[in-house]
Design goal:
There is one protein chain. The chain has 348 residues and is an alpha+beta fold. 18% of the residues lie in helices and 32% in strands. A seven-stranded antiparallel beta sheet has the order 5-4-1-2-3-7-6. It has a six-stranded antiparallel barrel with strand order 8-9-10-13-12-11. Strands 15, 16, 17, 18, 19 and 20 form a six-stranded antiparallel beta sheet that branches. The longest helix has 23 residues. The relative contact order is 0.11.
């Protein structure tokens, strides 16, 4: 045993001596990095913050759009003129469906899609939705790059976002900012409250382009900037949330347009104590009036769903197929009554 102890002690002393020698004489370590670099740290710069990978995976699916509108000839020249609008679009699936803003292709006689690869295609208009200012196009092509999408995408205030598009026809451009406000994402969208608000700059030609996060996933469809002549507004730009845009796209592909349910009332007040919304005006011969709803009724449940906000109630109605009967529980004259209402079709 004493012999083995002697051997073990000798090896230990040798290792310790070697470590000390390598620490005192760094040149003995060679050029390769090793464990001993921990004792001799070298100056190094941290990797720069970059969104290049996000742009790399998303940008090929963002296309340039050129919509040509024929302007009728006037009496003097007797010649038609062609007006071209700039815009962007996003390839949503491998079958060639592209989503963009309706105002980009409104009244277009011809729509040209230019890919980042340089290929160009004539696009067919599948349908559009004026309420959300979205339109769906289709090109006859295969193996197109598709924008990354997360079905459960939930944007939050403070998220870093990148806007990709073709501003002023300068070529594909990326701007960066954060989401500064979020709205609802139901089919009842009728105002800017439905949009994402961000400070990633967009200009003419950006409309219809992609708003992505730092992973390259689609967050929204760039729509417009808030612009009022009497005010010098900066840093307020709007995008349609991804979930709403995707829902609208599927409706357009299936029906050629978005079919929304309609109740035929107006309301601007949610009664907190009653947990319901107050009905204002009722459209003559509309679904609400025909079903027995009256001005002054407080709707607190729709099909046993408790109403938490006006927005929620409007979305329930808007996303109901016309012709469907919904049961409205209302407070009227201190009584709780239930009325079956046949939902109508939202007038276009």
């Amino acid at each position: 045993m004493s012999y083995f102890k002697y051997i073990f002690r000798a090896i230990s002393y040798g290792v310790m001596a070697g470590v000390v020698a390598l620490i005192l004489f760094p040149q003995l370590r060679g050029d390769e990095g090793s464990f001993f670099d921990l004792f001799d740290p070298k100056d190094s710069k941290p990797a720069p913050l970059s969104f290049a990978q996000a742009v790399k995976v998303a940008s090929p699916a963002v296309v340039n759009l050129y919509s040509h509108e024929i302007i009728n000839s006037n009496r003097v020249t007797r010649r038609n003129t062609i007006s071209t609008k700039l815009g962007s679009g996003v390839i949503m699936d491998s079958q060639g469906f592209i989503i963009t803003n309706y105002h980009v292709i409104r009244n277009a006689a011809q729509i040209i899609v230019l890919l980042q690869s340089g290929e160009d295609y004539a696009a067919e208009l599948i349908g559009y939705d004026v309420v959300t200012d979205l339109a769906v196009l289709k090109v006859d092509a295969v193996n197109l790059p598709v924008i990354p999408q997360e079905p459960d995408m939930e944007p939050f205030v403070g998220d870093v976002v990148l806007a990709i598009g073709n501003p002023l026809n300068l070529g594909q451009t990326v701007t960066q900012g954060i989401i500064s406000a979020v709205g609802r994402s139901g089919l009842s969208a009728t105002s800017h409250l439905e949009f994402l608000q961000m400070d990633a700059a967009i200009n003419e030609g950006n409309s219809g382009g992609a708003l992505i996060n730092t992973n390259g996933d689609l967050v929204g469809i760039n729509s417009r900037k808030v612009d009022r002549e009497e005010l010098n507004i900066q840093g307020i730009f709007l995008a349609v949330p991804y979930k709403l845009a995707h829902k609208v796209m599927l409706e357009i592909i299936e029906n050629g347009r978005v079919v929304r349910g309609w109740l035929g009332i107006s309301t601007i007040e949610y009664i907190q104590n009653a947990k319901g919304f107050l009905i204002g005006d009722v459209v003559v011969n509309g679904p609400a009036q025909l079903g027995g709803l009256l001005k002054g009724d407080i709707v607190h449940k729709i099909n046993d769903i408790e109403i938490q906000s006006i927005a929620q109630a409007l979305d329930i109605v808007a996303e109901t197929r016309p012709g469907t009967v919904l049961n409205f529980a209302v407070y009227r004259n201190n009584k709780n009554i239930v009325l079956p209402i046949t939902i109508g079709t939202f007038p276009i």
